[in-house]
Amino acid sequence: MTKTVGVVGGGQLARMMIAPAVELGVELRVLVEGEAMAASLAATAVGDYRDAETVLAFARDVDVITFDHEHVPQPVLRALVDAGVAVHPGPDALQFAQDKLVMRSRLAELGAPQPDWAAVADEADLRSFLDDHGGRAVVKTPRGGYDGKGVRVVSDPADVAEWFAASDGPLLAEELVPFTRELAQQVARRPSGQVVAYPVAETVQRDGVCAEVIAPAPRASERLMEVAARLGVTIAEGLGVTGMLAVELFETADERILVNELAMRPHNSGHWTQDGAVTSQFEQHLRAVLDLPLGATDPLADWAVMVNILGGPAAGGLTDRFAAAMAEHPTAKIHTYGKDPRPGRKVGHVNAVGDDLEDAVYEARAAAGFFS
Amino acid sequence: MTKTVGVVGGGQLARMMIAPAVELGVELRVLVEGEAMAASLAATAVGDYRDAETVLAFARDVDVITFDHEHVPQPVLRALVDAGVAVHPGPDALQFAQDKLVMRSRLAELGAPQPDWAAVADEADLRSFLDDHGGRAVVKTPRGGYDGKGVRVVSDPADVAEWFAASDGPLLAEELVPFTRELAQQVARRPSGQVVAYPVAETVQRDGVCAEVIAPAPRASERLMEVAARLGVTIAEGLGVTGMLAVELFETADERILVNELAMRPHNSGHWTQDGAVTSQFEQHLRAVLDLPLGATDPLADWAVMVNILGGPAAGGLTDRFAAAMAEHPTAKIHTYGKDPRPGRKVGHVNAVGDDLEDAVYEARAAAGFFS
Questions:
Q1: A256-277 pLDDT, tens digit each
Q2: Which residue, A329, B152, B340, B341, is most buried by CB atoms nearer than 10 A?
Q3: Where does the record place the ATP-grasp domain (chains A, B) (predicted)?
């Protein structure tokens, strides 16, 4: 009996579940938002993920519903659960990924290290937070932000006056952490409890968007690796996450780590696992949401490097560049999302693995360079 | 502009092209023989590959036609070429995979080492061959044999009397080679000429069917690796093969290698490349037939071991066994073909890679053991 996984959302994360689904013999169904989505080739339904009837109809006859993104509204998620559908991650977990204030509160309860933060209801609240934190802070809309959107560094409450005006609740103010670098910890957890952690990776952001990832994080001490993995496991268990969890972290000069963001799905910071680990995050997510035993998270080489392809080439299509990139970089693994290039849009990525970090960085960057 | 590859034949080899096609952004279309084939999930047409009109209609608007098997008749292949369709491998190459007598003649012209052989027209011819070769020989029907079918060890011409009666041409008689083991050399070649070789692998056959593969072949000297790779390249070039070529070899006690069989497509003996090499044979085949630069053939670890899943479990479905196999063997990579289990039928395989050969053999065998 073939198991069937229904994925709500047809972006590249759903698309990258196709390959492991085929090999595992898992039937993948995808509810896409429109015809021209990255995962359209596996699409079995087109419709609005905010509409409970659409999602309920899609969920009929699947073994589990999972997601390409965290934007499915709580009432829709609850309707699925009420209808007896297995939903992973479930609504109780997803609320922490959907609302950054709810997440901050829960992480505080768990004792997870995080930046100083406060719910600020108005400009006066924010002024007071700024006064307590050297006059600068990061302000976030609790809901709906991603890839740098809904995040602003402010020194004057007036900088986010329109956010206060538009919001029906408080904003999130966070201490501006003087971090030395950013890290990402990938963890997978099954509904029945098994949990595994990948080696923590270093992520490099440009303009608020992930640009490069190196796994494991260079110069990471054993202690740091352990602390990050344990923190990931604590959060996955404490928040009841099922499937993949990405914990984005700040590392400080004194080697402390602080939780920046969470994502409850395969995440850009884990794409290196496709070619650099025994079990990719996409296979792992399918195994986890089906409550199958999790795969090994061991790296396949000393280093794995991922470089995003952003925006696409100035002239010509993506595929026009394949021949040149492949000719120069036969060890680079090029992954494309089937999306039309637009400035700043993630349209693919390149992985390179090997036992020499400089080589792997060079190969991944140089191959990606042909596409943007 | 997305490139489109049309695959004639819907078995597991076509199915295993799906994963790399998705990541490369290649559109895969598959002409399947019936509804319930391994690659049915990518099927875009159902029909008879022996019918020129069916195949010509399927070939419309694809960039290249390739194959899951070598059984498409020459007139159909020629009709494709005449219609201006790019066909890889082409009819001139495929004739050598379709007729073992034609192959033996051509390999002799190329000076490739092979067992003594003869075209035997009748029982008297075969008697004479037997007399010259110690009274025993392997007799093969030149066309249509696979996985041990159409192959018989004989000591009396009467053993194949019905083959002579049914055949409209001579049979192939081959010396019974006193081989110490069997090897397989994978090579890929582009239409424009680039050719790459994988490390030669050891294959273990049971009842004429591939059971296990170890790559690289244990205890293989550098000289053997080089000779095998060079032989593979010579054959690919000499026969004009495009796409993947598998050369099945006998190794003798004095470290000679002799060509046993050829396959012009991804082959069971190369499945280890999915998890054990930078570029899998399925990705490589797509790159080769599209005339894209070939990927690196480097192994990802010291050893890769592949064990076939034959026949399926005595009770229950394949997927019932996943949980047990995955729980015990988190490093094993299980690949399933979506086929109903039947005795002796290949329904999947397991790859294990690592730097310890005994561990990898154990993991692959033990994980596969849950399924058969």
A1: 999 999 999 999 999 999 999 9
A2: A329
A3: 104-290
